[in-house]
Amino acid sequence: MVSSMLRSLRGLRTASSPASYQKFASRSPIRRPWQCRPIYTTTESLPSADTEKPYYITTPIFYVNAAPHIGHLYTMVLCDVLKRYQQLQGKSAFLSTGTDEHGMKIQQAAAKEAVTPKELVDNNSQKFLKLAHEGGISQDTFIRTTNQQHKRAVSHFWTQLKNGLPKRLGLYKSTHKGWYSVSDECFYPEDLIEASLEPQTGKKIMVSSETGSMVEWVEEETWFFPLTKYKEQLLKLYDENPGWIQPESKMKEVRNWVENHLEDLSVTRPAARLSWGISDPEDPKHTIYVWVDALINYLTVAGYGDKWHLKEENMGIWPADLQVVGKDIIRFHAVYWPALLMALDLPLPKKILCHNHWTMSNRKMSKSVGNVVNPFFAIQRWGTDPLRYFLMRNGSLSKDTSYSNDLIEMIYLKELQANIGNLYYRICRPKSSSRWSTRDAIESFFAGDFKKNEHMVDLSDPRYSYSSLEPHIDGVLDIYKREMDNNNPAGAINEIFGLLRETNRYVSDTEPWNIAKKTDIPEFRVVLNWVVFNSIEALRIAGILLQPIMPTKAGRLLDELNVKPERRTIQWAVRGTDDSYGISPTDSRVMEKVQSWDTIFPPTPAATYSDPEVLEILGGIVENPTKNRLNKMSEWIAMEARLGEAGVRDLLLSRKKKPTNTQ
Fold this sequence. Notes:
By secondary structure, the chain is of the alpha/beta class. It is built from 26 helices and 19 strands.
């Protein structure tokens, strides 16, 4: 049992190490009976050697015509968090990511940079691999579509589409006339095209009404996939599986598009126009459409084309349990992809999760505007885990989210430094080593001391409400699991933050430092242990639940608490289940002075805030900066637990408006 738990926990720590990311990427994989031969594989969190299919989660493969941006990191982290959550439950999980390396945009970008397409994709693919490493992503495979294994999978899939289906359901050749967008790599129906003006020149152009991308009229001979023949099957899929696309709004959007705009899909480009791609194995004058090529990567990872070809065979880790995509590519994954799989009678992915985009100062990120966030700089500035926390806390499935350095700074100060870090040091490293011991508090609980003294509790008086934190501790796990099962890390983080906010309130109300002075009261030690135990239990449980989101920082917190590695899975995130952790009075760390730079969440340089949202949230603290800013923030958090965030802001506003006494 213990060894199984340890195996499942291997990915909960960060994938980073002092070694270079090239060495990290080239580790030899542990072979599993269901596992294909990956292009790049890590040994982090490889599934346990059982026969159950791992939970298979995929990022979209990222297009390498340019360097990575913060949106790419967000998608990677979201998938990684959801994978690690599966492992937190003791389950096997497999994460695939990689790069999409063919198509017209690659060909044009290479020509512009005066390099070959291969040189361009080799260079940029390494940047995405490096980003995965620096972002703490525990991917099991990093696939590249220029790899020979993938080309074999695409060729086999293509041949089946072309030759293995009834004539009306398979590929056919015809002349395509339509509006084509190079930047979006797709054709658009006539009713989704509109006239516009090019901003730089004022020249009249035609654009997609959906994306705003310029389109051009193209007439060329291509192979077609009869997408319209699969319309009823697609609509039936959506109607019988309303949760197949998350969120619901994206399901409605996709269904409406299939109902009103579906056309047969042009699935090749003339090789004379596009040579950088996978050729039709029977007709080399045609290059396979980049999106058909790219979508098949999810099958390549599962061994399709090499280890299996039909659903009657052992399909390894296919079908995918969760495929995560951005809103700009939902149609490719929720319309084209299931139709292609239906054509070959292959199982569909179990769920599509669609997220929105990131903006900068409420403007869409654009290289031409110069407001693209470099994820490597962001990691360097904030650290891997704090940035992961921010992205998961603020990212959204329903609306675009603004990236703000002020907001990250505020969240770091309030939620990480004060709500977690400062709380830990207040409880576990008190200034005087003689005041209390977390180890003694834990032993007191398991000895039944608190139950014997329940008569001392007075919930009407915060100073004596020793048991008031317990319902919050007991309720956090169910809500956390509900949010994570619904692929909503932001909701899970909110619940953990709420628990720790209540814990800060509890510590401020009960004042254990004052209880420790009341040595003349016979029961003072029991009461002191009661407060300390509940506080440290909240920290321990929060540390366990934060592991998927902040694997390194949560791991360090649990290390500091002396929580054993085999007691960090989700079944241990229950009050009163672990009797073995805690810091004894003789522990050398108790006597050590904690240096600020060596804390779990070290201080950042003092910031000057300009974001109106942040100024509103931090008003009192920004206006009156002091050396005790962290303690002041902890008290602010405690006030929020008592009054609510809106209540604290209203109180601050009323104080500002109060007239001064002129007498």
